[in-house]
């Protein structure tokens, strides 16, 4: 490690009480603007821990050229506090490291997709020929029944949609390594909030269906669900044969296809009523957990 940060880390070891006091205060007072001599470096790595109370993240980061070797360490974060709603252990991270007169912090923090330990040895890109894409213009209309389907959940169990009759169900589509913070990570964060609302009221189910079944195996989805704290009894993460997944996506009007190593896909959140009919559907990100919760309540009451 180069000398500026080495001095900071030695100071942390010598006077921990002073540092703790400083960080507790920083959460309540506006941090001063960096000086004109502040240096900035690109940071890339994997989040290993998140402490929203202290506004810190622990990152296993790559080498920071010209400044620091690869290692795992904690960084203060000076960013919009809402960024902590989408930061989770296991996510890829990109950020700017600011070093200013012996102080340091991260800003402009972005999550770049989940990294499953079960992906070890998986090729970075899958052959396009293996990818099955949904047929367009086959979406079910609001008020019509959703054709029954069977996919595999994160526990390896086959789940049929018809098994959930009697409960309203919210359905969405993601893939675990999605690198766009405002796409899958945002959808998953909102579903986590929706999960909390349903748990408090004791009704409803959630289905998150991968649009990359070739990579998102039950093991990968189980790890992803675990890092979200998802209860498999209420929140199912589903995968299956690519053709079967594509058929389900087409029924919800969701199209996806591979592009430059990623999956381009429509964002959608649907509510299926207790009788298996499509009650409401949102496309894009123009929805929130509270709105979908109200839709689930309405569907439940008929």
Structural features:
disordered N terminus, single chain, 5-stranded antiparallel β-sheet, alpha+beta, 5-stranded mixed β-sheet, elongated, 14 strands, 302 residues
Topology overview:
Layout: H1 3-14, H2 16-26, E1 39-51, E2 56-61, E3 71-76, E4 91-100, E5 103-114, E6 150-152, E7 158-160, E8 169-174, H3 184-201, E9 205-210, H4 218-228, E10 235-238, H5 242-251, E11 256-259, E12 262-265, E13 268-272, E14 278-283, H6 289-301
Parallel strand pairs: 8-9, 9-10
Antiparallel strand pairs: 1-2, 1-4, 2-3, 4-5, 6-7, 8-13, 11-12, 13-14
Helix pairs in contact: 3-6
Overall description:
There is one protein chain. This protein has 6 helices and 14 strands. With 302 residues, it is α+β, with helices and mostly antiparallel strands. The strands form 4 sheets. A 5-stranded antiparallel sheet has the order 3-2-1-4-5. The chain has a 5-stranded mixed sheet with strand order 10-9-8-13-14. The radius of gyration is 22 Å and the shape is elongated.
Q: Structural class, from helix and strand content?
A: alpha+beta
Mean pLDDT comes to 84
Stretches where pLDDT is under 50 for at least 5 consecutive residues are 1-29, 120-125
Overall radius of gyration = 22 Å
CA-CA gap between termini: 62 Å
In total, the number of strands is 14
Give the helix tally.
Answer: 6
Helix content: 10-25%
Instruction: Give, in spatial order, the strands making up the sheet with the most strands.
Output: 3-2-1-4-5
Which outline best applies? elongated
Percent of residues in beta strands? 25-35%
